[in-house]
Amino acid sequence: MDNIQLLLSGLANGCVYGLIALGFVLIYKATEAVNFAQGDFMMLGAFVTIGLVNPQFMGIDFWLALPLAVLIMGALGYLLDVAVLRFIFGQNQVAIVILTIALGFVLRFIAGETWGHEPLSLVSPLALGDVRLGGVVLSLADVSVIVVTLILTFLLWQFFQRTRIGMAMQAASQNQMAAYYMGIPVKRVQGFVWALAAMVACIAGILYASKGPIDPSAGFIGIKAFAAAVIGGFGSLPGALMGGLIVGLIEPFAARYLPPGYSQIAPYALLIAVLIFRPHGLFAQVRTKKV
What are the structural domain ranges in the chain? Predict the structure, then answer.
């Protein structure tokens, strides 16, 4: 029974990692850039929602504040691309990596100065009550994380496979110049991708804050999400989710059965093994170019 409890708890945590990893993959699929501020987008989305919902701030109804927070973060992601990232459009991807690392520090500073550095809890109906499955107790927040992650992953996968803009994003990722000559508005597409990734991160932040208190340093969870994206396959949306689930499951079982401290390094040990034996990720579909 304890193992089942660990399994369900690990799945819930893994879904949060998977949602953040989805943001990594979204941006990478469209721009071939890595946004190391994705975890900080999650953190900021959670604090924006706290600022809208909690009584000591604005006190808006949760279900009204939820889409508002998602739209705010989407607008922030789009403006970030328009105001900053487009000025280094076409430059080496290392420049974007350095820029997003610096952006993470800025977002953590803004969150700390605005809402303080002490942990805050989101007043969320998702955090009220438990679900009992036999002798296993699972919080409603954990159930919400799992359900929302599955739905969102499916919708995003359909978006990339079925819609014109989704295919345009993939075309821009493979060859920006060719996509431009084919009439695809590459810069506008990239702005939409950054907005979408920020919105996904906001949803992850809302779910994460529903599980417990959050502070500005919570953005560092993006490091685990990055490991999850690499383990699953950096170009695969389902792979990002599976990588998040793997990392989430490793942590509680490693904490239970390995010596103290090993649970923190277990996901990264797996990351090293994957990079050595399957560098494209466990669930990546490797395509070969025909010449």
Answer: 13-218
